[in-house]
Amino acid sequence: MYVNNNVLTIVSRNSNLALAQARLVQQHLQSLYPDLKSEILGITTKGDQLLDQNLTKIGGKGLFVKELENYLLDGKADIAVHSMKDVPAALPTGLVIGAILARADPRDVLVSENFTNLQQIPLGSIVGTSSLRRQAQVLALRPDLTIRSLRGNVETRLRKLHAGDYSAIILAAAGLERLGLVQWLHNPLSIEDMLPAVGQGALGIEYRADNPAISELITPLNHAATAQCVLAERAMNAKLDGGCQAPIAGYATISNSILKIQGLVAAPNGQFIYSAVQSGNIADAVVLGEKVASQLAALGALDIIASLKLRGPADD
What we know:
Helices cover 35% and strands 23% of the residues.
C-alpha cells in the first residue's frame, strides 16, 4: 500500500516551517491510527536554494510544490503536505488534494521590534516583504513607506529584521504559530486592511489519485468548511489566471450555511485596488468564487495581472 512497505512516507520541503506542518499532519494521522508507521522525507527544493533570484524566472511559487509532486509521481512518497497558498490552480494529471485541514489564523502580522501598527512607523521607513499582495495593501494605507524585497524562511526574515535592515516585516500568522513563535503574534493586521492570500492558513494533503487506500486514510482529516472556503478562493484565482504571485487576495468564510467570499486585486503601488464580494450557498463555492473573479475583471483587474505577467512579480 505504501512506498516503503508498511511505512507511510510524507514528503515535505526541508524548511523548519514545512517540516512543522508535515509533523502536524503526521500527528493527526497517528491519533487516528495508533498503529500507523510513518516517516517524513524532507527535501530542499530549487526555490529554497536560489534565494537571490526572482521566483518567476526560475518557475514561480509552484516550483516549491512541483518538486514534491515529482516525488509522488515517481513513487518515492505517498503524500505531500502543502501550504494551500502555494499550490497552483491546476494540479498535475494523476494528483489530487485529498484533504484540507481546519484553517489556522489566516491573517498577516506586522512584525517589528519597535512598532505595533502601520500608523506608528515613521515616514519613509523600510518594510520587508516580497509579496506584491502585501506590498500593494501596505502602500494603500501608507504610500510614504519603502517596500524592500524579503525572501528566505521565517527565521532568515526575522534575522534580517533583528539586524536592522527593516523597520518592520510582514509574515503570516499561521506560520509563526506553527513554529511556536507566538511572541510575534501580537500585532495582526485586520482582514479589512490586509486581505489574505488565497488559501492562507490552510494545509492541504496531496496524493496520487490511483491510490484509494491513501484516500481512505486521509479523508477523515478533511475539514469540510475550510475545504469549501479554499475551493471558492481557488476558483476565483483560477478564473483570474493570477497564479500564486500576482497581487490577488481572496478570503472566504462560512456563517449559518452561507459562504461569503471577498476578492481583491491591487496595483503594486497601492494606487488602484479593485474589490468584490459574493455570498451564497456553501454548495455553490466554485460559482461564488468565479462570480467574484468576473466582478474584479469587469473593474479592470485583468489589466493589472497582465502587466505583472510581463514584468515578473515577486513571491508571497
